[in-house]
Amino acid sequence: MIIDTLANLGKYVAMNPLFQDVVDYIKSNDLASMPGGKVIIKGDDLYANFTVAKGKTKDVAKLESHDVMIDIQIPFNVPESMGYTPRADLPEQPYNAEKDITFYDGLVQQYITIQPGMFVIFFPQDAHAPCISEAPEIQKVIFKVKY
């Protein structure tokens, strides 16, 4: 997991060749004004999901992980808290290959809060419970990057 400001996203491009495409996309688009939905950037390897998610309480948010894709999550309008537990600390659960997601009933080990202007990167080893907020809606984008 990586947490940082958007101004520093370019410092992480060496970690995955598609991260540069994310940086370029962010520089050439006003993310907060994008309509909701999926935007294909590089086929199945890189796309963005623009969404307005409902704020959840800690007891409702479920841990999830992905085997194929990395998440780069960026909230626009309100701070968003997210639960985090290393995947290695969770029991095996069924994997949905079609949706590239595994849900866990395990407990969150810690919480982080991402402010607008920041991002978080979740790799396959990072189970995360997103969308925790007292705000009723979180406007955000999730870049899905092939691992």
Notable traits:
147 residues, three-stranded antiparallel β-sheet, mainly beta, 1 helix, Jelly Rolls, globular
How much is the radius of gyration in Å?
14 Å
User: Overall pLDDT, averaged?
Assistant: 97
| Residues in helices, as a percent range | under 10%
CATH architecture: Sandwich
Description:
The protein is mainly beta and 147 residues long. It has a single domain (2-146), classed as Jelly Rolls (Sandwich). It has 1 helix and 12 strands. The strands form 3 sheets. Strands 1-10-5-12-3-2 form a 6-stranded antiparallel β-sheet, covered by helices on one side. The chain has a 3-stranded antiparallel β-sheet with strand order 4-8-7, with no helix packed on it. Strand 7 (95-96) and strand 8 (101-104) form a beta hairpin. The radius of gyration is 14 Å and the shape is globular. The model has no long low-confidence stretch (mean pLDDT 97).
How are the SSEs placed, and which strands pair?
Elements: E1 2-5, H1 19-28, E2 37-42, E3 46-54, E4 63-65, E5 69-75, E6 80-86, E7 95-96, E8 101-104, E9 110-114, E10 118-122, E11 126-132, E12 137-146
Antiparallel strand pairs: 1-10, 2-3, 3-12, 4-8, 5-10, 5-12, 6-9, 6-11, 7-8
